[in-house]
Amino acid sequence: MKKAGIIVALLLIVIIGAYFGLREEIDRYNPLVAEEYVYVQINQQPVPENHRYRYKLNGFNAEGKEKKVTFTASAVLKEGTFLKVMAKGSYTKEWEQLASGDVPKTVMEKLR
């Protein structure tokens, strides 16, 4: 009985660890996770990673709810640049650069 408890505990640790380690991949293929646009402003330096630059930023969806997004770019983006990021949970499908006039007003107020 004691061995069964230890095995169950170890399996839970492995499953939970795999979820957090592979969260982006899980969200990518999970049909229950909805896609949404998140608006962000570049306000910090990226972390270089495998000839790309990883950004971890806080942004807002169209309703004004704060979301954390992580994405990569092939070049360093200029500070103050506005982006529209297609996020699906932890997975970023795509992003595009926006002019400040293209950002919804409710989101622009929160980004500044």
TrEMBL record:
| Cross-referenced Pfam families | DUF1093 (PF06486)
Q: Which InterPro entries match?
A: DUF1093, YxeA-like_sf
Q: Which top-rank group of organisms is this from?
A: Bacteria
Protein name as annotated: Ferrichrome ABC transporter permease
Q: Which organism is it from?
A: Paenibacillus azoreducens
